[in-house]
Fold this protein.
Amino acid sequence: MKERPVKHEIIRLNEVVVGVNVESLLPKDWIRQVDNVLAIHGEPVILEGGKHDSSLQPNYTTRYRVVHGADVATNLSWLDHLYRNDFREIVSSVRQKEMKPSRQIKMGVNINSISEGGYELHADPPECTTGLLVATTMEEDNGGELVLTLLNGEKVSVTPQQGMLYIFDGHQFPHEVTPQKKVKYPRVTIPMNYFPDGFTEQPDLALEEFLYGK
């Protein structure tokens, strides 16, 4: 396969996660816009661990607010455009194969806000490559870290930094978010799902109900 050109610097953070600074692609007031949409369209969700196959932490309760993909497309058209174009090209460059956005608009690109606790250990759908755009920087040693479990059971972590797009295999490497020790502001991230060109993504209504509570 011919190697794909890379337009942005790709930083390998550990065995499974790479980071790309994408601030140059974002509107100057993107944080304000994301916060406004969260305030208006963010829906509170409580996940009870173990109630879906993707959930790997029984008895763990996750509380967060989410803006799903349809509301992102309607209210943040630039974000939906980046998801389907510039970010997709970056993810394809990292994976060295053509990647496509999710066919399920509701789950393709979301905005997640966590103010209390962490996010349970879970695995994304089969063949899913995850792109995680960060809206709020987490302080070192204060929690809010992205933690991934390697195939040998060891764990690696990433402290989220605003404007970074983190890319990893979200299905092969289960991941979770640690609680903030001292909450100064919500942890806001924008997860995006991508799949290999030619892969037939199967709708999962049970997962949709689990994630959004409806």
Remarks:
- The chain is about 25% helix and 30% strand.
- The CA atoms of residues 27 and 78 lie 8 Å apart.
